TrEMBL record, chain A:
Positions of region (Disordered): 1-32
Low complexity bias locations: 8-32
Bilayer-spanning residue ranges: 42-64, 76-97, 138-157, 164-184
Highest taxon, organism lineage: Bacteria
Name this polypeptide is given: Tripartite tricarboxylate transporter TctB family protein
Record flagged with keyword Chaperone: no
From TrEMBL, chain B:
Residue ranges of domain DUF112 in the record: 20-442
Species classification: Bacteria, Bacillati, Actinomycetota, Actinomycetes, Micrococcales
Protein name: Tripartite tricarboxylate transporter permease
Ranges that cross the membrane: 20-49, 61-82, 107-132, 144-163, 169-188, 200-223, 314-338, 359-383, 395-427, 471-492
Top-rank lineage group of the source organism: Bacteria
Coiled-coil region(s): none
UniProt KW keywords: Membrane, Transmembrane, Transmembrane helix
Pfam families reported for this sequence: TctA
Amino acid sequence: MTESSPVPLGATAPGGTPDPATGAPADGAADGRAGPGLAGEYAFAAVSAALGAYAIIGAGFIRVPPGSASVLGPRAFPYAVGVLLLVASVAVVVQIARGRRGVPDDGEDVDPDAPTDWLTVAKLVAIFLSQLVLIESAGWPVAVAVVFGGAAIVLGAKRWWMALLIGLGLGLVTQLVFGAWLGLSLPAGPLLDWIPIFHG
Amino acid sequence: MDSLTALLEGFATALQPQYLLIALFGVFIGTAVGVLPGIGPAMTVALLLPLTYTLDPTGALILFAGIYYGGMYGGSTTSILLNTPGESASIVTALEGNRMAKAGRGAAALATAAIGSFVAGTVATVLLTFLAPGIAKLAVQLGPADYFALIVVAFLTVGALLGSSVPRGLVSLGLGLLLGLVGTEVLSGQQRYTLGVPSLADGIDVVLIAVGLFALGETLFVASRLRHGPVRVIPVARGWRSWLTRDDLRRSWKPWLRGTAIGFPIGTIPAGGADVATFLSYATERRLAKGPSRAQFGRGAIEGVAGPESANNAAAAGVLVPLLTLGLPTTATAAIIISAFQSYGIRPGPLLFETQSGLVWALIASLYIGNVLLLVLNLPLVGMWVKVLRIPRPYLYAGILAFAGLGAYALHFNVFDTLTLLVVGIVGFLMRRYGYPVAPMVVGGILGPMAEEQLRKAMAISQGDLAYLVHSPFAIAAYATLAVIVVTGIWLKRRKARLEASPALVPTGAVAAVEIADAPADAATRDRE
């Protein structure tokens, strides 16, 4: 499901014919060396390479207990992982430089011709972050109402009050099913804690 | 005969009313979630994990088996009925199935997929029943060096074969291995890469990696380029008569069996999972088709649904062979199942058939039961799945976010896990955006610690002599196989890319586009012959 072969919309896509080198819709760029997302693609590969370097450097700081029985200490495998990550990331950078760009994933609800909408992503991340505070202060049902309602509104739900209402309903139902019935200790929050069934 | 009696005992357990009910629920909820567009089998299993947290191990594994098979099945309904290009894993089913649905034969496509899944699932489960104990017996004799070889084969093939390029797959694998390193190291008790955060000392749960990459990462990615406008579902004719005609049946049964024969072996080796199996089956069916059915390929040939769909399900059962006998996950879904096993203190591997034999056989028995339940459940419930497909997308993805949050928080009831989930989710989004496969990362997260353990055991035995890693014939054979699998796999992928790029198979978004595409499609089909 993660196989990222391009959707061959070449015949109908406004970008024109598919790029023979990568099979990707060419997005108007002649050889795949330009086009949207190039900087981001380099950045992701660079950060991966940095993580690989960090793994290698960090491995040197892992304390090896004196007189440990095993011959291979706790450092060896991290070194290997770091080298793999670093080498593979550099290889990706080389590929990008040669024009072999990454092909974005496809899916039923993905519009292959749409540009990346970073603002929506940022909003969703911010909404999800609210869980860090809300779950333990306001309780699970409220936290779900905020996440569900907020996300649905950001994604274009027609009626905002409906989204919040469904979110609240979902929060209460999950609280009852998972908290009261299945016995997971989800905090009900100050608003509901006095009701015996939620206190479970 | 040993395994037969054990299997019967397994049935005795799995047929108890409460477990039967759990199996039914698992199959139902697995299909319902699997039908949801954008949710593949891996995400289905990851999202429904919290349901199993409070069950006893037997109940949890039975629920899992149902969810696993149900999720596999649900995906095919989506690709047949949803009027958008499907995801690649099920794209082969979509090629012919979607065309059949547009031609008003959606019910027949769904029926042949359902019965094909049943046939393949059952045959493959029989094979699993008789193969697994033998393999487990052989595997008991393997030493740490052999295990290390097997694990290296598993993660390198997964890393190299998934995704658009080998280095990208390996980057994904490396990120997973790095996350797997975080935490307190078992043998020496040293903390690694914990950045001094106490919550990280226990390591990063693979569930967080899976839910983060699949649920959260996928949602963020879909949100970043959401297809707006109304959801178009192809209507399905009601009534029994339209399901399968005698002619459909005549054309379907051979592809069902061929699909099974192709899918099961490919599922058992780490060669890219069901994706490769469905493609191979499709290519085979198209080559073998004669006369009028040959002309139908590209416009809704029933063989093109029956074969790949059987291959898909047979591969799903095949994946369970290395998982149960060796403890090796070869797909992201399998990695999640292993981590669920581990949360119950169960270690899948060769000893599983001895130490937990009751549990394993109950699980295998429930696979048979799940298959029957799926067949009974799915055809009559098509109307309901169609409604599920129509869920407005804002609510669908908001719901996935909410359940991802539940899965993370319910792990340890600690919001730190929620934060970890979000970070992994953002990484998953970026990986999808920039064309990295995410499955190797999940597999790396779970296989990394296992690889290190076996490697260090081997080195302890050999007093640090690296040559010990290739001292046994088994290990040498494993590394040789690795080379063969990678080369064949890359060759198959090339072929698949060529197949998908051919204009005959354009998965178009609108009915109207089919008519336009048909003319060049015919020309292209002739060209290849």
